[in-house]
Design goal:
249 residues; mainly alpha; 0% strand; globular; Rce1/LyrA-like_dom; transmembrane helix
């Protein structure tokens, strides 16, 4: 039995005047697609941790990279099989206006994130770190692997995470005809919670706000990917220096 489609003539929830109008959704995936992709991420992480036990340098990198990349590939596959592809369903297309918007909003977000991180470290203590930093604490990676982790944190992970949260999740909620504000709020909250770092949840909320705004303003994923990459640049540099032993943990 085919899934009934909502008529395009039905009124849609109002959006803020500065936000892009919500898309009329014709894809055939919903919240279950997001939960499935998120489940792939969690299951892959658990299986790799159980398989390697006490991992070496190469397996640590694999454990950091593979779950995120697999989840992103699952998201793209879902849009191809059950939708119109990532270009139409996610708005994942090259537009200079989206890039400049992502750079501008990401730059502002980088400032707020840096301030919020400094406050978090002050309140939580000097030993407070992210999950990635804690995994690499005391681990010295060969330069090639260190650069791979740097590129993953800076460029690859933001793409994969955006495919999940501002792609699958965002599109599923728009298909349910939620208002843009509610879509933004819930995707921001689930992004912060989905990192499974309770002590950093409020910090991740602050990080997620400008990224979600880039998605909301343009109506496309490219801007939020760029904003996310801008936000991740300094943390990626810190992890690079840490993994090379050039900076204390």
């Amino acid at each position: 039995m085919s899934t009934p489609q909502t008529s395009e003539t039905e009124p849609r929830p109002p959006s803020p005047s500065w936000a892009a109008p919500p898309q009329v959704r014709t894809h055939r995936w919903g919240l279950g697609a997001f939960l499935f992709a998120e489940g792939v991420f969690v299951l892959t992480s658990v299986v790799l941790a159980a398989f390697f036990g006490s991992p070496g340098t190469a397996s640590i990198v694999l454990m950091l990279v593979l779950p995120t990349v697999l989840a992103g590939l699952v998201a793209v596959t879902i849009t191809v099989v059950r939708g119109n592809g990532p270009r139409l369903d996610f708005g994942l297309q090259w537009r200079w206006s989206d890039v400049t918007t992502g750079l501008a909003i990401g730059g502002v977000g980088l400032v707020t994130t840096t301030v919020a991180t400094a406050l978090w470290v002050h309140w939580a203590g000097p030993g407070a770190t992210s999950t990635v930093s804690s995994v690499l604490d005391g681990v010295r990676l060969p330069p090639v692997l260190a650069v791979l982790v740097f590129l993953h944190i800076w460029l690859i992970a933001p793409v994969c995470e955006e495919l999940l949260y501002r792609g699958l999740l965002w599109g599923a909620m728009e298909r349910m005809r939620w208002s843009q504000l509610n879509v933004f709020l819930l995707s921001t909250a689930l992004f912060a919670i989905g990192h499974l770092e309770p002590s950093r949840t409020w910090l991740l909320l602050i990080i997620a706000v400008p990224i979600g705004l880039a998605r909301m303003v343009t109506g496309r994923l490219t801007a939020s990917v760029v904003a996310h990459q801008v936000n991740n640049f300094l943390p990626a540099v810190g992890v690079l220096l840490l993994s090379l032993g050039w900076m204390p943990a």
